[in-house]
Amino acid sequence: MVLGLAATALILVNLYTDWLDPVRERLSSLAAPFYWITGTPSRVGDWAEDQLRTREELLEENSRLKHQVMLLEQQTQLLAAVRAENTQLKELMNSAESVDQRVLVAQVIGVSPDPLEHVLIIDKGRNDGIRDGTAIMDASGLLGQVIEAGLFSSRVLLITDANHALPVQVLRNSLRAVAEGTGDLYRLKLRHLANTSDIREGDLLLSSGLGGRFPAGYPVGEVIAVKRDPGKAFADVEVQPRGLMNRSRFVLAVIGSDEPDPAQSVNAEARD
Amino acid sequence: MEAHNRWFILLTFIVALLLAVMPLPTNWLWFRPSFCALLVIFWITRMPENLGVGFAWLMGLLEDLVTGSVLGAHALSLGVIAYFSLLTYRRTRAFNPGQQLMWVFVLAGINQLLGNWVHGLAGKTVPGLTFLWPALTTALLWPLVTPWLAGMASRLRVR
């Protein structure tokens, strides 16, 4: 009876306040080994796949990668000039926004067992500079954000989770919208977009950076269907996320620029 | 006196937790049996003098931590089914396999029901009665797992 009440109280405290968050963060490292162990079969599979390649396959992959590197290098050369120009312009405008962002590679060690939530567990945590809200992406697009940063592992809420929404912008015409998760790994929905707004199939959506949670300019998804029903106030817009929600083995954590936090620098000034 | 070999109980729970977070294809996630509920019913029916609601409560808390659900959700549900198992262990032992299976389905169903209630509080809705599938798979697992568990327990003299 007492234990039942205690459990109910714990549930309510956990749901409606954030008092228990520090406790959870400490203890979440305890859960990581379980995910690591259950992930072993797939890691063995990956290892075997790497080891049991034929020479021809490796040579082929090597030449493909060399091609890719050449293409990417060419693009970086362009980018360097653009970035220099960008920095200069930002300095002219006295903007504090920094262009450089530090990126950390993390490995996915588990998936939440609850079918109602889209959560990944990654093997990097507070010790590596990850904080609550750190944006997580893969090579093709935005995946989600960190909701619980433990010491050595963190939980990442995917943008397709039914409880997630993020501000986006259409690349073609900078139209702003909010992309909501649907609980389906391959679908997002745009919320409250007027029937008359200029959006069509094939439009690429980027994160807009509004709200300050996600860095601006990362690809989020592509519009795959626009349904305009005159009887409804808003258009039905379906979006396919760019990131590979359930297939990425390695992900990138965008842990901000190397410059210190505004809050920290204020403290430093106060000490001086 | 020789050792009680209680570590075996803990070992079964660690295995159950591993199975509880084992990656499964998305479509199968709805059918994952609740291994911890099965173990709570089994161990309490076997050793009602030594194990109680508190034990189930702690195991539930551990499950909450490992699966990352709301703290206290499994503690509550496992605590409740531990209480019911304590009340009915004599009957459960006397049941024939078919009756046992039905009774485990009811207990695991209560476990799912409470879990679903917490999900509801957290704002996650489940379509229809899909949340009861794990209760069915847990019940179907019961006749497969318990003879082996009981055999191991008596060989190791877990008391």
From TrEMBL, chain B:
Pfam families in the cross-refs: MreD (PF04093)
Keywords: Cell inner membrane, Cell membrane, Cell shape, Membrane, Transmembrane, Transmembrane helix
TM regions (residue ranges): 6-22, 65-89, 101-119, 131-150
Subcellular location, record wording: Cell inner membrane; Cell membrane
InterPro entries: Cell_shape_determining_MreD (IPR007227), MreD_proteobac (IPR026034)
The family this protein is said to belong to: Belongs to the MreD family.
Function recorded in the entry: Involved in formation of the rod shape of the cell. May also contribute to regulation of formation of penicillin-binding proteins.
Listed name of the protein: Rod shape-determining protein MreD
Annotated source species: Microbulbifer harenosus
Gene name of the record: mreD
